[in-house]
Amino acid sequence: MTEKKKLFVLCVALFCFMAVSAQQRMSVSSPDGKLRFSLKVTSESVSYDIDYRKQPLITNSLLGFSFDSGEFGRNLKAGKVQRKKIDETYKLIVGKTSSVRSRCNEMTVPMQEPSDSGRLINLVVRAFDDGIAFRYEFPEQKAWDSYVMYDERTQFNLQGNPMALLMYLPGYVNTHEGVYSHVRYDKVARKRLIEMPATFEFDNGVAVAITEAAIRDYAGMYLMKEKGGLTGKLSPKLGQEKIKVEIDNFPHRTPWRVISVADRVGGLLET
């Protein structure tokens, strides 16, 4: 090998190393190991994947926000990841059973802008045997203690072409009633609001339902199919189309974004 070729190979190897080292990756799996949430933080974006039984369900889905203080989702650095196991039982007031066992593995990832005064948001992810849930937490911090949110940019990019069972809505102000459509994912109408939960059945029988939980001091979320997949759309404040959420003080946290998973559609009812 000539000196020029050696130099070229060395440069390529160095470039690849720098590109990989610039990425931060972390993941959390369900207690039974079948379901995994993987997070990737780069200088350009924050994105996640969800695998079930080592098969991709949701891939390369972006996370981020648009605030009055600017975009949040680029040039971020992930801090020290905190992990814990949760195994608790609580009673239900109504339902098919008197008590429920909640068992999952939790991962909390601090995401902060480069400077010491940069904004900080924690991404909290919980991996259950029957689903993934994640939310954002806004801890107390000196340089940032309130926000006006223009958008939460959470994507759900489903793999393949599953059958979709969903309901279109005419607008954000609605009765939450309508006729459900049962179509292939590639036939889902673009730029139309979709009610949650929305259900998807893959050809191998695996079923996924996308919804939310624990909505408090926050806007309700809908889905919309755009280029690249499904994107969450927050309901705007009445009379203020641009503004979705206003928070005057921290700490604060968003609702859970929930992806339920089962080996069959009927299994979603059993979760």
From TrEMBL:
- Superkingdom of this entry's organism? Bacteria
Q: Has UniProt tagged this entry with the keyword Acetylation?
A: no
State the signal peptide span.
1-22
One Pfam family of this chain: GH97_N
Task: Name all Glycosyl-hydrolase 97 N-terminal domain ranges.
Answer: 28-270
Q: What's the cofactor? A: Ca(2+)
Q: What are this entry's molecular-function GO terms?
A: carbohydrate binding; hydrolase activity
KW Signal (keyword) present:
yes
Q: Any idea which UniProt keywords this protein has? A: Calcium, Hydrolase, Signal
Q: What quaternary structure, including any partners, is listed in this protein's UniProt entry?
A: Monomer.
Q: What is this protein called?
A: Glycoside hydrolase family 97 protein
* Source species: Bacteroides uniformis
Q: What is the lineage of its organism?
A: Bacteria, Pseudomonadati, Bacteroidota, Bacteroidia, Bacteroidales
